[in-house]
Amino acid sequence: MGFEGYVLVVDDSVTNQVLIEALLGEEGIKTVAVSSTNDAIKQISKEPPRIIILDILMPNVTGIDLLKAIRQDEKSQAIPVIVVSAANAELYRNQCQMLGVNDFFPKPINIPALINRVKAILNGE
Question: How far is the C-alpha of 115 from the C-alpha of 36, rounded, in Å?
Fold first, then answer.
């Protein structure tokens, strides 16, 4: 079963990018992966994704900074965001919640739960 559009994976770990791309690809979900928030902003401007899977702890510009930018831009503010991060501290969870993330998955990722959540959002649930 294929889905329209694509999921943008923003993570500085290539290993995590490849893992998420492979898992979602098996479900017929197209992904685009980028390693930095700057690349993510360029990709979102070029072609907005259906969902963004976002790591928080990244060098230079953090995932929180990207999340703020996404929520402040009219063109991207409605895009669902799922945070997947080793930054499981309450502070990060609270910031993400205040910025309207759709879900927060700590690393190591509960893979079946992540896939189910992505599919649910793509199906409009």
Answer: 23
Half-sphere exposure of 122 (CA within 13 A, CB side): 25
Burial of residue 10 (CB within 10 Å: 0-12, 13-18, 19+) is: buried
Tell me whether strands 7-10 and 51-54 are parallel, antiparallel or unpaired. Answer: parallel
Between 87-96, 101-110, 111-120, the lowest mean confidence (pLDDT) is in 87-96
Q: Report how far residue 100's alpha carbon sits from residue 74's, in angstroms, rounded to the nearest whole number.
A: 14
User: What distance in Å separates the CA atoms of residue 118 and residue 111, rounded to the nearest whole number?
Assistant: 11
Phi, psi (rounded to 5 degrees) for 106? -75, 155
Q: What does the mean pLDDT of the chain come to?
A: 91
Task: Report which of 124, 123, 111 is spatially closest to residue 26, judged by C-alpha positions.
Answer: 111
14-64 pLDDT, tens digit each: 999 999 999 999 999 999 999 999 999 999 999 999 999 999 988 888 899
CATH superfamily of domain region 7-122 = Response regulator (3.40.50.2300)
Domain boundaries, the chain: 7-122
